[in-house]
Amino acid sequence: MLNIAVFVSGGGTNLQALIDAQDRGEIKNGQITFVLASNENAYALKRAEKAGIETAVVNRKEYSTKEAYDQAILDTLKDKSIDLIVLAGFLSILGEELISKYRNRIINIHPSLIPLFCGDGFYGKKVHTAVLESGVKVTGATAHFVNEITDGGAIILQKAVPVEKGDNEEILQYRVMRQAEWEILPKAVSLFCEGRIKIIGNKTEITGE
């Protein structure tokens, strides 16, 4: 059974999707054992506490550099025996040391179909604003591994979601979460814990399908 740490910054809807999937037995060979928040006001902490999951806050504002923040996170994880880190609405960019230590063991969920609408500056509602301004008819979400390039790691799963007439950022954001993020993130986590993701260069193959 692999130990999973989930990193959060806000409301924690993706964390809740993971907890719900775990309760339904859909995350095979893995268990969420730790939740780390980048600020003490993240409602996700309450979701974790309600589920009986250990939590900690490592506040980004207390550290002047990315390297110092990375080290504080590594120190917090040191005795937790974490096998997989899941970024579920975590708004701080991880540094090279942490990424290197957990190489191919960090999964992020991004609210677009990478390589579209991703990279530095594309997060939260900013992604959906850009989608709506572009006029594309389809968007979606991507579960991917994290490397040193923002949203540049190997893609695990993607799911498309339609852009509909009358959408604004809030409506589109909720549709993408409900129809894509909350579905593919738990699936990607389970695939990792089952050892079914094979990484070849910057691509993945899912085994046992």
Average predicted confidence as pLDDT? 96
Give the quaternary arrangement of the chains.
Answer: single chain
What topology, given as strand order, has the largest sheet?
3-2-1-4-5-6-7
What's the main sheet like?
7 strands, mixed
Which stretches are poorly predicted, pLDDT < 50 over at least 5 residues? none
Q: First CA to last CA: what distance?
A: 21 Å
* Whole-angstrom Rg: 16 Å
Helix content: 25-40%
Shape: globular
Number of helices: 6
Helix and strand content put the structural class at alpha/beta
Question: Which band does the percent of strand residues land in?
Answer: 15-25%
Counted beta strands: 9
- Order of SSEs: EHEHEHEHEHEEHEE
